[in-house]
Amino acid sequence: MNPPSFLLSFFLVLTYFTSCLGVYHEKNSHTVSYHSLPASSSLLYRKSRTWNRHRQQARGYASSVNVDEFGAKADGSDDSEAFKKAWNKGCSSSGDVVIIVPKNRMYTLKPVTFSGPCKSRIIFKIHGTIKASAKTADYARDRSHWIVFQNVENFRVKGGGTINGSGKIWWKNSCKINESLPCIGAPTAVTFDECKNLIVSNLKFLNAQQMHLSFEKCLNVRALNLLVIAPEKSPNTDGIHVTGTQNIRIQNCVIRTGDDCISIVSGSKNVQATDITCGPGHGISIGSLGAGKQEARVSNVFVNRATLSGTTNGVRIKTWQGGSGFAKNIVFQNIALNNVSNPIIINQNYCDQKEPCKEQRSAVQVSNVMYRNIVGTSASEVAVKFDCSKTFPCRGVVLQNINLNSQESGERATASCDNVNFAKRGSVSPQCS
Ligand SMILES: *[C@@H]1O[C@H](CO)[C@@H](O)[C@H](O)[C@H]1NC(C)=O
Ligand SMILES: *[C@@H]1O[C@H](CO)[C@@H](O)[C@H](O)[C@H]1NC(C)=O
Ligand SMILES: *[C@@H]1O[C@H](CO)[C@@H](O)[C@H](O)[C@H]1NC(C)=O
User: Fold this and answer.
1) Test site for ligand 1: of 164, 170, 209, 234, most ligand atoms within 8 A of the Cβ
2) Quick check: 11 pLDDT over 80?
3) 181 CA: nearest ligand 2 atom
4) pLDDT for 23 beyond 80
5) Per the UniProt record, which residue ranges are transmembrane (predicted)?
6) Mean pLDDT of 261-283
7) pLDDT of res. 4
8) Which pLDDT belongs to residue 353?
9) Residue 321 and residue 39: Cα distance in Å, rounded?
10) Where are the beta strands (DSSP E) in 11-170?
11) Where are the alpha helices (DSSP H) in 73-140?
12) Cα→Cα distances 112→109, 144, 149, Å
């Protein structure tokens, strides 16, 4: 493989960028080091400075609560009760509080929900490791969640620690791995449900049972400096999932999993993803939308500066036939792709089920989608694919400065464009015929 030199320099610039801003770097596939944010950069810091000021002004002074004080043992036995007690203590305290999960210790948790509203601001500092119980029977009551933070405001989760979903047992029992088994799903490792003013930063998520991190019905979120890792063959292990969430910025994240790097689904608005590294996995996706004739609404998505390597898609919009609603005002820009199977794709005939999907007239309307400065190599012949609905063609698609070549030297990359209304600016290759 010999990428054009300008592509190489683009990668270098990206790498430089991400390293300045402080992102996880993988030295090799086994060790991972972390460079923290320099004190002067990023909005996070500005936000946290404001926060500290608030804290100093607050009457109840910042106190801390340590899970060990509540009986957490970190010896492989269940620490859930200790964590719940620590949470309840923190959540009911009248001054700002830091809940501490000490470093160099590995705690085991069964499914647990940490609920608000809390009396004051909480910082949940995970320095050590939190590991999921690997007994599926522990999830009998609710198979779809492991750790849930619910209805918490002015909340930060950080600390440099690790959250390990112990996913192996779930992957083995997935219908995507063993087709003779029923499709019954598995827990999302960490869910933030109806949280407001939330910052999740400087953490490592490993081997989730299914999705790693899900933001659901949240408002004002930053997800920064996260490392998310699971094997390429682990089923449905999306990195960061965004649903029903408004005003979210995902920044400086490295995501290498078996499913979507970032997935953005219905009810999400004002979503920014900046300085993202993906692969392996399925790429950055809006959707799927409109499954089971649902109405979907996604708008104002801005993906800027991403590098995807060896993913099955690059930037993707996927909708099922029969849905309604919209996916609109979407920008994908400054994206480098390295051996990606479907670098640019809109699929309005998405069908992720065993039976074939019947043709339907209704569809989620896709409009105003800008692809700008997208370069790299395609692992498949069709580098640009717009497979839009006959009855609801894709509207207002703009391609600007696109240069996608085949990964195989001597092969030509092509574009396939059905039912799409598009414009082209600058140099675009390959082009719809
Ligand atoms: C994650 O958890 C699994 C199962 O509980 C364990 O086997 C594995 O060693 C853990 N990995 C790390 C890096 O802690
Ligand atoms: C798939 O599941 C079936 C039914 O539980 C089981 O008998 C079989 O051993 C599994 N196959 C593999 C490869 O794990
Ligand atoms: C490119 O991707 C294809 C398909 O995923 C894979 O088979 C091939 O080994 C990759 N090539 C390189 C050089 O990584």
Assistant:
1) 164
2) no
3) 2
4) no
5) none
6) 98
7) 40
8) 84
9) 48
10) 24-26, 32-34, 63-66, 97-101, 106-109, 112-115, 122-126, 129-132, 145-150, 153-158, 162-164
11) 80-91
12) 7, 12, 9
Q: Tell the residue nearest (CA) to atom 3 of ligand 2.
A: 180
Our answer on whether the CB atom of 407 is closer than 6 Å to any ligand 3 atom is: yes
47 pLDDT exceeds 60? no
DSSP 359: P
Distances from the Cα of 271 to the Cα of 80, 259, 363, 398, angstroms: 33, 19, 22, 19
Q: For residue 307, what are the β-bridge partners?
A: 277, 336
Task: Identify the residue whose C-alpha is closest to ligand 2 atom 13.
Answer: 178
Locate the ligand 2 atom nearest the alpha carbon of residue 178 and give its number.
1
Identity of residue 275: D
Mean per-residue pLDDT, 72-83: 98
Whole-angstrom distance, CA of residue 398 vs CA of residue 418: 15
Q: Is 42 in the pocket of ligand 1 (CB under 6 A)?
A: no
Q: Which atom of ligand 1 is nearest to the CA of 164?
A: 1
CA-to-CA dists, residue 258 to 131, 239, 290, 356, 378, angstroms: 19, 9, 23, 23, 19
Q: Which helix (H) or strand (E) holds 51?
A: helix 42-57
Query: Of the candidates 238, 212, 98, 231, which has an alpha carbon nearest to the alpha carbon of residue 147?
Result: 212
Give yes or no for residue 377 CB within 6 A of ligand 3. no
Contacts 24+ apart (CB under 8 A), 8-17: 10/336, 10/375, 11/307, 11/336, 11/338, 14/275, 14/305, 14/307, 14/336, 17/275, 17/305
Does residue 180 have its Cβ closer than 6 Å to ligand 2? Answer: yes
Of all helices (H) and strands (E), which one includes residue 201?
Answer: strand 196-206
Whether 62 and 48 have beta carbons less than 8 Å apart is answered as no
pLDDT digits (tens, 9 = 90+) for 220-269: 999 999 999 999 999 999 999 999 999 999 999 999 999 999 999 999 99
- Is there a catalytic annotation at residue 30? no
Residue of 104, 207, 228, 234 with the most ligand 1 atoms within 8 Å of its CB, for mutation: 207
Residue nearest to atom 6 of ligand 2 (CA): 180
DSSP per position, 147-163: EEEES-EEEEEESS-EE
The catalytic position among 145, 212, 241, 282 is 282
Measured by CA distance, the residue closest to atom 1 of ligand 2 is 178
Average pLDDT of the residues of the chain:
88
